[in-house]
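Supplementary Note 3. Input sequence used for the single-chain structure prediction.
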Amino acid sequence: MEFFERPDWARPGPASDTDRPAERAVLVHVDFPLGPAEEDRHEFYHLVTSSGAEPVAEVRCKREKPDPATYVGSGKVEEIAAAVAEHEADVVLFNHPLSPAQERNLERAVECRVLDRTGLILDIFALRARTHEGRMQVELAQLQHLSTRLVRGWTHLERQKGGIGLRGPGETQLETDRRLVRDRIRHIEGRLAKVRSQRAQGRRARARNEAPVVSLVGYTNAGKSTLFNRLTDADVYVADKLFATLDATLRRVRIPGVGPAVLADTVGFIRHLPHRLVDAFRGTLEETLSASLLLHVTDGSAVDRDVNVDAVNEVLEEIGADELPVLHVYNKVDLLEEPPRIERDESGQPWRVWLSAQTGAGIELLHQAIAERLASGWVDQWLQLPPDSGRLRALLHEAGEVLAEQVGDDGALQLRVRLHRNHFQRLLRGAGLTESDVALPVAAEQGGSYNPSARHTE
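The predicted structure, written as discrete structure tokens, is reproduced below.
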């Protein structure tokens, strides 16, 4: 048993989201031959501090496999009980999933509340949820988790035997609780279905507007919300804690070279994210499925960044988003004291951008990389506008996509534009024109293509 003198990897945890007094927690971590590595222990510590608990002791052990009754075995249960008594702990937190029977047996032995990793994450989500939809999603996951553990609350009333005169009130109360939970789950699922329908209508409207969707995904606390605020001038909540934001946020932005786009910020991921949470937040994560491009944000200064990338890829695969185009964004280069840069793959396409969302260094490189990744839908050409197309000219200038302007030999106005084809077609339709009505061939003396990807390959 290790009484909690903060490990080298344990930095002081962030303050809780509420004014409730910090609960004193005994942490339990088991090392298995093929189980979580040391970084999981690091992550567990930050999960605990993000929940507002105060770690006072840590119990570690090595096992070949979990004990069916208590997960850690009788000897370690005695150590946990001793730590609880000595430090007057309020809760024991396991860095592993426990069965309802294991939780019940441990609570009886240590005379203290016992919570597993899933329960801890659910508690953090309950603290962080801000919107109505977020609260419903968290409540659904909590009820699904609770439905297998109701027996703990009514142990003193249970009746294990049947027959006349032996059907006690505990059995009735337990069945009542289960029915109430089932009814509440159905009610929440119905309301979330309506929310998902409304989200689907929003996605269809965005598809009609033909604005590309760029979705931010990544490991929790990698700086997604900071980058989102930097790109959109929004004020999404940012804090140095796990799951600081849970609710999907969408903003309309203008990306140079692309035009209007929708930027979506979603919940962060962690290793071994409970499946109930993935299911509960599936409606929110569906914003990712409709994305034209994923920005996979990674903490570039993290020692275990490659493991974090793998964890995010697992969740993306689980929700069916693993086939979408991805641009990797390695954040926090200011902590590495390295310059911002773009790394390209063998075909010359950007695949990784190094930047700092906090300082803004490298943001223009990200804009360039996004534009190049969406370049397959670009228009890069000269236009000759009819005399009555003043409004179209003004809209092109307003979008900031006019690269050159001149007057032709016949006095007609000629513009060189570079913008996303969807945006281009939308502007032409508004003016009652087609591309063939205004397109001019690019002459050699006019300088060739302005497409950055074309410049790279020339």
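The two ends are 64 Å apart (CA to CA). The mean pLDDT is 77.
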